[in-house]
Amino acid sequence: MSVPIAIGDRLELFVDTRLVDRMEAVSLRLHEPHPAPLPASPLPIAYTTVIADAGRFRAWFRSIDPDYSGDRFDGNAGEATWYAESRDGHEWESARNAVLRESPFSHNFAPFMDDRPGVAADERFKALAGLHDRAIADLRERAPGLVSPATRGGLYAFGSPDGFEWRKLSDDPVIPSRAAGEFGFDSQNVSFWSHAEGCYVCFLRTWETRHGQLRTISRSTSTDFGSWTDPVPTHANLPGEHLYTSATRPYFRAPHLYLSFPTRLVPDRGDSTDILFMSMRAGESTHARLFTEAFIRPGPDPARWGNRANYVADNVVPTGPAELSIYHKSGHRYTLRTDGFVSARAGADTGELVTVPITFDGDELLVNASTTAAGSLRVELQHPGGAPVEGFSLADCRPITGDGVEIAVRWEGAPKLARLAGAPVRLRFAMRECDLYSYRFRNGTRAGSIPSTFRMFRPSGRLFTVLTWIPSLTGL
To answer: Starting at the edge strand that comes first in sequence, how are the strands of the sheet with 263-266 ordered?
Structure first.
């Protein structure tokens, strides 16, 4: 028997098959986000980072000074890192204009809010930025005096107390140019503090050589944001496929899962681009790609079929109690339901998904699910060998019909789920006309939540209404 995987009270999504043992009449489905109406003042997307912070949405992006009239090569004198804010996540306004004007660092500046325990107050925000040696040499030739003589190729570390005032944390690059190879770093090189790994993680632009010279993604880690490991390729590319950015961050509801939305570049089709979806579990170095098709297509607008037409901002943010937003270069805000990237879907025939043996913490099982009027979801807890746990069989489970982000699963007689905490079990999901997006165990009802209703039926068929809870944006 395999060693049970300890999930504790973590939220688990179906972005990989790590916890799936078998599926019958159930398949994993990638859900396409949909564009909201175009804002009157959309967020500019040019190597943009979005952070939800204390009731506001904050964004940093590359732009050109409106007074600049020179050549617009990468790293030119007009490039700066600009800042914008939004209260609703839809309409944006400039708050302090440019917050960094230094070549070449404004070209790919990628901030994050450092929530490492004990982080210094003047380094609450951090960023990596810089270009490779060849690009630095090209800048010096194109614009003598633009780049400081002390600037070498590589990624430099920056810190800030507020996201506005930035300073270099060292005089030398923390990830040298040689680590990424020729033409490395040429897009956002995103970094963050990983609570799951207990270290800083960076996803940087490098080159793939297994299938020819392809733009790709590598991963590096650091305990102090100063000394970084040699980058390790994540081997995300398919043969002939260029991945121009990574847009990788921990998912805010499940920070042990890193979600990526890279731009795929197709050189033999006029450098057309689209957006992919990938994931990685904390501590691993290889991207999981359950789906090789596009997550966001170029669509009918001819302007989105050109070079550099499809980028999304780094980070997915919650813009409603049950809504996620992804910001696209077109100006549109693409939306999904909470956890709505991938679902385990059953059609008109009843299907089943059974997990590998797991251990959990908590006294309640919650599911994020959506059924049709005729559909349903039931859950059985099994011993590792497959026999139902007494009191938690499918026959005991009250069928769920409805739609909710956090629906509590109930069994007849209200058996104590907490008595199974720490013991190896399997979860058996029986579904019909149902999408199951995620599940988690937890202790009791979380405070500060938003009520929602769904329908549940007793085995007799009598309908009753249950109050469940969708977490608020605070503290997620």
So the answer is: 242-243, 263-266, 272-275
Task: For residue range 3-40, list pLDDT tens digits in order.
Answer: 999 999 999 999 999 999 999 999 999 999 999 999 99
Greatest Cα pair distance in the chain: 81
Query: What is the gyration radius of the CA atoms in the chain, in angstroms?
Result: 24
pLDDT at 454 over 60: no
Question: What gap in Å lies between CA 143 and CA 76, rounded to an integer?
Answer: 8
CATH code of the region 34-337: 2.115.10.20
Q: How far is residue 282's CA from residue 163's CA, in Å, rounded to a whole number?
A: 26
pLDDT, greater one: 10 or 458: 10
Q: Which helix (H) or strand (E) holds 255?
A: strand 254-260
Strands 5-8 and 358-360: parallel
Strands (E), 65-135: 79-86, 93-100, 110-113, 125-129
Distance CA 213, CA 365 (A): 47
In this structure, which amino acid lies at residue 397? C
Confidence at residue 210, expressed as pLDDT on a 0 to 100 scale = 75
Residues 62-82 pLDDT 10s: 999 988 999 998 899 999 999
Distance CA 251, CA 9 (A): 15
Give domain limits for the chain: 5-31+343-471, 34-337
Q: How far apart are CA 93 and CA 87, in angstroms?
A: 9
Type of residue at 318: P
End-to-end Cα separation, the chain, in angstroms: 35
Q: How far apart are CA 388 and CA 372, in angstroms?
A: 27
- pLDDT of 247 strictly over 50: yes
pLDDT at 277: 98
Residues sharing a CB contact under 8 Å with residue 390, sequence separation 6 or more, in sequence order: 415
Domain 5-31+343-471 CATH (choose: 2.60.40.10, 3.40.50.1360, 2.60.120.260, 3.40.630.30): 2.60.120.260
| Residue 126, C-beta contacts closer than 8 angstroms, at least 6 positions apart | 111, 112, 114, 157, 158, 159, 160, 169, 191, 225
Q: How far is CA 225 from CA 14, 199, 281, in A?
A: 31, 9, 21
Pairing of strands 199-208, 175-176: unpaired
